[in-house]
Write a structure and sequence with these properties.
single chain, about 500 residues, mainly alpha, Serine Threonine Protein Phosphatase 5, Tetratricopeptide repeat, Zincin-like, 3-stranded mixed beta sheet, about 55% helix, disordered N terminus
Length: about 500
């Protein structure tokens, strides 16, 4: 039975952008992790629409009565309605499309996306499996079904099998293969096979990704086919990815922009995996390179700061955190976000609803616990090493320099960090409860049994990657090593004054 405390949408967001982070619980937008579009969306997870553009319904041969054009129009309208969150109207467009072509997988893909958006991943998976039956050589349903299995249904074994099956398809581009490899690595991590995941990562061919990033950085050869002639396969694949559609025609500006977004998404996943596998110097070089190419991407700066923090460069990490804070603040907050007074009262009700001795003692204190509802952490906290995207923070004070005990003095809730990837008010309120309880459970030192009793995931729910093999002159490994509990428990960068 699924634990209802961490919806697949949010878990997918956490895992895929700042991917499989074992000591940071971060998230990412729909369409593609690292997507520079506004973070708050009103539709389903990014993976339900991530690959649908590869099939051009207008290219199918007509039967002489404009049937192909009608079919394509219904699908285009359906996806547009889906993107606006009008799922009922989108479903009507699916029905009309299926009346024209009941055996075509594209309409079934949209049908599956609608099911996942409505909170029915089981039905969504059935739709994607049906799309595979209709066209076994169509890559998209394999990828999307694997992501639903992994993130919504918590079934990494089934997700990995789908990745393996997809890898055997005849016509897979270099970038589709990279996407499959990264997803397979994430599957292995979530099922606890960190050594196999690391080995797969080391064996992955990321040459096309690196070449495409160089193209974007310098614009070298992107607009000239002659520039790519005679080069290696990785450079050719990168050039084609950034310039040509599946039919070999030049990309329009919007299509090229989408390709660059997809490129950024993959690069962020690679950065996160380098961090998780302990390749700290490699992660630092990779993320700093991304920051020169995408200087206005907050997700990039967030990972730069994480890499700098882990290699032991707190001054640089603080600057990157401040840059992340600045860029995150530029995103608009959703109109449905409750006001601070309402959120203050809701947090109080959350605390009253918990049946645990530590929480009861908190409510029985002579001095009430101050609840601070803010948009973001202050720059001063970031300079002390606090995670710029922490959603809740238990603040405390020691009674003296030699006193190991501390008193909980306040609970801060940072709504901008919390709302970044919540598609609606219901998900936001559920996530508010989770982050408040998780932060206080960490402060009180609740064990897994007590955590599960109050409705939050155990610390050891997802195993951590195994540590990287030591190398000469390598950066100092993350101090948490293989201690799963510590890695999952680290909710912020270390503060010397904050005991756990």
């Amino acid at each position: 039975m699924r634990t209802p405390v961490e919806p697949g949408l949010l878990r997918a967001a956490r895992i895929c952008s700042e991917s499989i982070s074992m000591d940071r619980r971060e998230k990412v937008t729909r369409a593609r992790p690292g997507d520079p579009r506004p973070a708050v969306q009103t539709v389903a997870p990014w993976y339900t629409t991530a690959h649908v553009a590869s099939r051009d319904v207008e290219s199918f041969s007509d039967l002489g009565f404009g049937e192909s054009s009608q079919y394509g129009a219904h699908l285009d309208r359906g996806w547009a309605l889906y993107d606006r969150g009008d799922l009922e109207s989108a479903r009507a467009s699916v029905t009309q499309a299926q009346e024209l072509r009941p055996e075509d997988p594209d309409a079934v893909m949209l049908q599956g996306a609608i099911a996942v958006a409505e909170g029915n991943p089981e039905e969504g998976l059935r739709c994607y499996e049906r799309a595979i039956e209709l066209d076994p050589e169509f890559l998209d349903p394999y990828l999307t079904a694997a992501q639903v299995c992994l993130f919504d249904l918590e079934d990494p074994a089934s997700a990995l099998k789908l990745c393996t099956d997809a890898a055997d398809l005849e016509h897979i581009s270099a970038f589709e293969r990279i996407d499959l490899q990264l997803l397979a690595i994430e599957c292995e991590l979530l099922r606890g096979d960190s050594r196999q995941a690391r080995q797969r990562f080391l064996e992955s061919d990321l040459g096309a990704l690196a070449a495409a990033l160089r193209f974007v950085a310098s614009h070298e050869g992107i607009d000239s086919e002659e520039e790519s002639a005679g080069e290696d396969n990785a450079r050719t694949a990168a050039f084609e990815f950034l310039t040509l559609d599946p039919d070999g025609d030049p990309l329009e500006d919007e299509e090229r922009h989408d390709r660059i977004e997809r490129l950024l998404h993959m690069a962020l996943r690679v950065a996160r995996l380098r961090l998780d596998f302990g390749d700290l110097e490699g992660a630092l070089e990779w993320t700093r390179g991304l920051a020169t190419i995408f200087p206005n991407e907050s997700d990039v700066w967030y990972l730069v700061g994480e890499a700098e923090h882990r290699v032991g460069d707190p001054a640089s990490a603080a600057l990157s955190a401040l840059r992340t804070l600045q860029l995150d603040a530029e995103l608009d907050l959703p109109p449905w976000l409750p006001n601070p007074s309402s959120l203050h009262e809701e947090v109080k009700q959350i605390l009253k609803s918990v049946d645990d001795v530590a929480f009861r003692a908190l409510l029985e204190r002579e001095v009430p616990l101050p609840i601070l509802v803010q948009e973001q952490p202050s720059p001063e906290l970031l300079a002390e090493g606090v995670d710029p995207r922490v959603a809740a923070l238990a603040l405390s004070m020691r009674h003296g320099e030699t006193d190991p005990q501390s008193t909980l003095t306040a609970l801060a809730v940072y709504v901008r960090n919390l709302v970044r990837f919540c598609p609606d008010d219901a998900v936001f309120r559920n996530e508010l409860r989770l982050c408040v309880l998780d932060e206080l459970a960490m402060f009180f030192g609740l064990d897994d049994a007590r955590r599960e009793a109050i409705g939050i995931p155990s610390i050891e729910r997802h195993p951590a990657p195994a540590p990287a093999a030591p190398k000469k002159n390598a950066a100092v490994p993350h101090p948490d090593g293989d201690d799963v509990g510590k890695r999952r428990a680290t909710r912020r960068r270390a503060r010397s004054s904050k005991p756990h």
